[in-house]
Amino acid sequence: MASKVTVIGTGNFGSTVAFILAMRGSCHEVILRGRNIDVAKGKALNMS
To answer: How far, in Å, CA of 10 to CA of 18, rounded?
Structure first.
């Protein structure tokens, strides 16, 4: 099991992948990276 995964891109695909990883418990930490920091923070907050 991976302990940390970084998803680059906060569009529909990146957000979906990050959500699936978080819900399955496939990793200990999911990091979202994107052009717009506020969008990445908002999506991360929604997932948590």
So the answer is: 9
Q: What is the pLDDT of residues 1-48, one digit of tens each?
A: 668 999 999 999 999 999 999 899 888 999 999 999 999 899 888 888
- Strands 2-8 and 27-33 turn out to be parallel
Residues 10/36, Cβ–Cβ less than 8 Å = yes
User: Which tokens go with 8?
Assistant: 């680059």
Q: Which residues contact 11 (CB under 8 A, 6 or more apart)?
A: 34
The torsion defined by the Cα of 9, 14, 44 and 19, in degrees rounded to 10, comes to -170
